[in-house]
Amino acid sequence: MNHFDIIVIGGGHAGLEAAVASANMGCSVGLLTMDKYAIGRMSCNPAIGGTAKGHLVREVDALGGVMGKIADKTGIQFRMLNKSKGPAVWSPRCQSDRKLYSEEAYNIASSTNNLSIVEANITSFLIENKKIVGVITIDNKEFSCSALILSSGTFLNGKMHTGLTSTKGGRFGEQPATGITQSLIDLGFESGRLKTGTPPRLKKDSINWDVLEVQPGDENPQPFSYSTDISKFPFLPQLSCHITYTNMNVHKILEKGFEQSPMFTGRIKGIGPRYCPSIEDKIVRFADKERHQLFLEPEGLDSDQIYVNGFSSSLPAEIQFEALTNIKGLEECEMLRPGYAVEYDFFPPHQVDLTLETKLIEGLYFAGQINGTSGYEEAAAQGIVAGINAANKIQGKPDFALKRNEAYIGVLIDDLVNKSTEEPYRMFTSRAEYRLLLRQDNADRRLSSYGFNFNLIDENENKKIAEREILINECIKLFHKIKIHARDVNKLLKKKDSPLIDSTGSIAKLSKRSEINLIDLVQFVDVNKYKIVKKLLSDKIAFYQVEIELKYEGYIKRQYELIDKFEKYESANIPLSLNYLTLNALSAEGKEKLNRIKPRSIGQASRISGVTPSDISILLVYLKK
Amino acid sequence: MNKIQTDDTIAAIATPTGVGAISIIRVSGPFAVSSTDTIFSGKSKLIDSHTHTIHYGNILDSDNNIVDDVLVSVFKTPNSYTGEDSIEISTHGSSFITQKIIKLLLENNVRLAEPGEFTKRAFLNGRIDLAQAEAVADVINSRTEASLKGARNQLDGLLSQKVQSLREMLINTSSLVELELDFAEEDVEFIQFDELQKRTDSIIKEIDLLLNSYSFGKVVRDGVNVALVGLTNVGKSSLLNYVLKETRAIVSKIPGTTRDVIREEVSIDGILFRLYDTAGIRVSEDEIEKEGVIRSREVIKNSDLILFINDVEQNYPDDLFEELKILNKQENIINVLNKIDLNKEAKIKSDIKVSALTGEGISDLFNLMKTKVFGSSNYSEKNAVVSNLRHYNCLKKAKESLMDANNSISSKMSGEFIAVDLRNAENNLGEIIGEVTSDDILNNIFTKFCIGK
Q1: Are A614 and B3 in contact (CB < 8 Å)?
Q2: For residue A111, with 0-12 CB atoms within 10 Å meaning exposed, 13-18 middle and 19 or more buried, which class applies?
Q3: Whether A613 and B420 lie within 8 Å, measured CB to CB
Q4: Mind telling me how many Å the CA of B184 is from chain A's nearest CA?
Q5: Residue B236: which of B286, B284, B287, B299 has the closest Cα?
């Protein structure tokens, strides 16, 4: 019988991160997938990042994950979203070459030490004393393991719908995974059903590009990964996306297909994401909107396919096609394949702990869409956390759970565990209450020491980051001390239309003015006297960090004050052995939810849906006893 | 509704100590009905009766002697004050009887309730929210009609409703800010700075109204302290006596030593006024009088209102007025000219002219006192009123956060900076009603805007 320390089922974005991280941490890992060339496959749109998702990619990278590296290598358009806003909501996004992306993912997986890729279709689990010990394949082969990470995406009893026709499958042209859901239910797990969708693909040459609005990438594209060599970046030629719009006529055509909509006729039982509605949903729910925006995204450098972002649909293929041909620029279009909806099983995530280990079966971890999330980035974030925790467990090291004030990853998992989810969960910046601190530009400062401790970031990289941290903090302190004289700075202030000063002002204070840049002020500093400033000027990344921290100091301070409040409850630990059922004063729902989720702290308890403020006061009183 | 699973049953005498016509014993918990059944003998068993019914019968002791004939009201879960099975036993007003019945209950699966435990159970069972629970304490402690009404309104959720609606306004505003941050790529219209400012301004205005109501709320709850000051023989005492005669409720008279401050409590139109008759504030050689002067000064300092009384026969004592201004504030002083029955034409500085002998002008004086206390505002117990310091502080913090947000708006900061303070304001309002959730904003966005590519 084959043995691995850790088995990862599924080679999508969660499975890949989990397998690579745990293998790099020294565990022998078996990545079991139905199709080894599907590793890292982009099932839906050919893009990585976006609002809040870009933050996740940067965080995964800072922990030592691979998503950012692959995206950098295979990106064909890079944009920083929200650039007109403050730094906290800047979000990197790229269009990827779909084919190259999964090739690169396969290369990384196959070249990672300790990692074996095995083609297998798993149908059930081997459990001893509520602990996972192995899996059984469809042809009755067994693999044994000490820990198992299940990241099966949309494959669990996957069912695809276009009109009233439905096909079994987890992704276009791929078989579903049957058996796993039932064997988990038999073990006592509770399952649910979700739905997501994908738009039609069009033939590139059939589109009249000349009449469409162009959306080019950034002039100075920035990579996702800290390790990417900026001098060679971007690696591939860059392409543009295009924008077009639906119209009332298109809406009328789509309405003709409503009778055959698997959504509206109730054939689809799974719950879809509200933030990613199908085009038919948009028309119904926002009937007074005369047009909806569509993005035509290239699928790759050599690909003849175009992805119609915004036109996700499960209406009959002929209706989709007729509607498309009534859209500007698509009049002559050729539809290579229609959009479809896919239904799949998931396991409501209150059944996992903050480590992503299931509460029912020791050593069994869930990551990705199985936990009810949507998106490659959300999956990757869970994958790396599950991988690290599985390896830690085997190596007898402590649990790894990021807090809400440390990372979007912390927000993501904390939300999943405590609030569970009824629709596919997607990250938004508004979910992070400490948004101003969790920026994409400081992910390495926040997280790379963890990555280093887990042996996922190399020593040189870590040293560089640690030294930079000192430089940043020293300079912030210094700029509070250095005062500039009115006679020196007023000329600049006048030029910038900024109020003049009377005697002196500190650099820190002056840099808070929105019209003033730090670099303008630093010219008044005697760099021979303050050598460290010279050093700062030669490190662009550090300089930018100092500028942000000074400029938004007041707001950042307010966020830290909130965190202090939050930490108080976060550090009020609740023993896992606490039997909530004996605490009679708790509300019935609170009692049941607390018992189910077994929060680690009062802070976590307070975020559980259904737990009331009075339940929390009761817990506080009880724990004081 | 989720009912708390309490396994014990509590009882207490619900009416105040002292002898009244009737007393009420309240019992709440899973054994409320069965325990009462064991000591009650009526036409039928209480356990078989419907909720909200009243039963006549006798309370019997363990030797089957009749303790009292009583009326028993039955309230079944969840439709009772506490949300649990509850019983109210109305007995004849005798502490001997009530104590005896309580003792019998204690022998039958019931324990004595701790102070506030009925309300606590009501709160824990979700029958009332935090603001309402706090109001219960105010109802119990209310001393006048208006304070009872004010507390009653809060209990009925008037303040909670108001705060809830403000919070919803805020969430709507936040959603518009967040929309632009999380959905910048979407084809939806984003909020403009001036529109945003308009919205925060209008919420601040509403919060200000609530904050201003605090003085009313506080007055309603705590009463108004009034110092009567004046030279000897201007008729302070006779004015005080006339007021006591005129007003309906003479709450109490707290006697002091000679030369000490005399305090009377009266209710004028439902508002509690505490009247302090000061001995005088002039320095004296007399040891006892010296002591009195010190106390009078204290009273004046701490008063909400000062009735500075003069009469038509003496000149206006400017120096004394100056002293009062230093001890308190000019706007709190009402110049009362007494004894106008003797000389209607006297030209002495005054805000109001009265006669403690004939009662002329007294009702005008009352009106003036009320206006001074409440300002020109038209507060009544029908409006949501803030009378609790914790609520006041939460509202104040919410306002400060909104002012911070306004600062960010006027310096054209990006939305995420504005959002920090909007969110703080939401949390502050949420604390009043014990409700804080972070999903509200996203839910609101998904309902109102077509999002998603």
Answers
A1: no
A2: exposed
A3: no
A4: 7
A5: B299
Please check whether residues A74 and A147 belong to one and the same domain. Answer: yes
Confidence label for B86 from pLDDT (cuts 50, 70 and 90): very high
User: How far is the C-alpha of B146 from the C-alpha of B269, rounded, in Å?
Assistant: 8
| Domain membership flag for residue A566 | no
Q: How far apart are CA B272 and CA A521, in angstroms?
A: 63
Q: Where is pLDDT greater, at A36 or B248?
A: A36
Q: Give yes or no for a contact between A555 and A549, defined as CB atoms under 8 angstroms apart.
A: no
CB contact (8 A) between residue B182 and residue A428: yes
A181, A327: one domain: no
What CATH number does residue A309 fall under?
Answer: 2.40.30.260
Find the residue in B nearest to A582 (Cα): B5
Which residue, A340, A360, A382, sits at the end of a domain?
A: A340
* pTM of the complete model beyond 0.80: no
Q: How far is CA B443 from CA A24, A430, B451, in A?
A: 40, 11, 12
Task: Verify that A28 and A114 share a domain, yes or no.
Answer: yes
- Asked whether residue A181 is assigned to any structural domain, the reply reads yes
Q: Which residue, among B378, B359, B376, has the nearest Cα to B368 in the 3D structure?
A: B376
Nearest residue on chain B to A559, judged by CA atoms? Answer: B420
Does A228 lie in the same domain as A137?
no
Which element (helix H / strand E) includes A166? strand A165-168
Q: Look at residue A146 and give its three-state secondary structure.
A: strand
CATH class, range B9-127: alpha beta
- SS3 label, residue B98: helix
Q: B231 in contact with A at a CB cutoff of 8 Å?
A: no
CB-based contacts of A397, cutoff 8 Å, min separation 6: A391
pLDDT at B72 over 80: yes
Among A420, A406, A257, residue whose Cα is nearest residue A347: A420
Position A151 in a domain: yes
- In chain B, where does the domain assigned CATH 3.40.50.300 lie? 221-374
Same domain assignment for residues A324 and A414: no
Question: Is domain B221-374 annotated with CATH 3.40.50.300?
Answer: yes
Q: Domain for residue A419, yes or no?
A: yes
Residues of A in contact with B124 (CB under 8 A): 585, 587, 614, 618
Per-residue confidence band for B130, with pLDDT thresholds at 50, 70 and 90: low
Q: Read off the CATH number of the domain in which A413 is found.
A: 3.50.50.60
Distance from CA of A514 to the nearest CA of B (A): 8
The CA angle A232-A238-A242, to the nearest 5 degrees, is 155
* Nearest residue of chain A to residue B408 (CA atoms): A555
* Gap between the Cα atoms of A35 and B56, Å rounded: 80
Q: Rounded to 5 degrees, what angle do the CA atoms A568, A574, A576 make? A: 150
Residues in contact with A12: Cβ distance below 8 Å, sequence separation at least 6, in sequence order: A39, A40, A41, A43, A151, A153, A368, A369, A376, A379
> Does the beta-carbon distance from B3 to A588 stay under 8 Å?
yes
Are residues A209 and A69 both part of a single domain?
Answer: no
Provide the number of structural domains found in chain A: 4
Q: The domain containing residue A583 runs over which residues?
A: 571-624
* pLDDT tens digits, A295-314: 999 999 999 999 999 999 99
CB nearest A277 (choices: B3, B424, B452): B452
Alpha-carbon distance values, B52 to A498, B2, B41, B79 (Å): 72, 21, 18, 9
A293 and A388 belong to one structural domain: no
Quote the Cα angle for B367-B370-B376, to 5°. Answer: 100
CATH annotation of B155-216+385-448: 1.20.120.430
Domain end call among A277, A308, A340? A340
Are both A19 and A89 inside the same structural domain? Answer: yes
pLDDT for B252: 39
pLDDT classification of B113: cutoffs 50, 70, 90? confident
How many CB atoms neighbour CB B364 within 10 A? Answer: 13
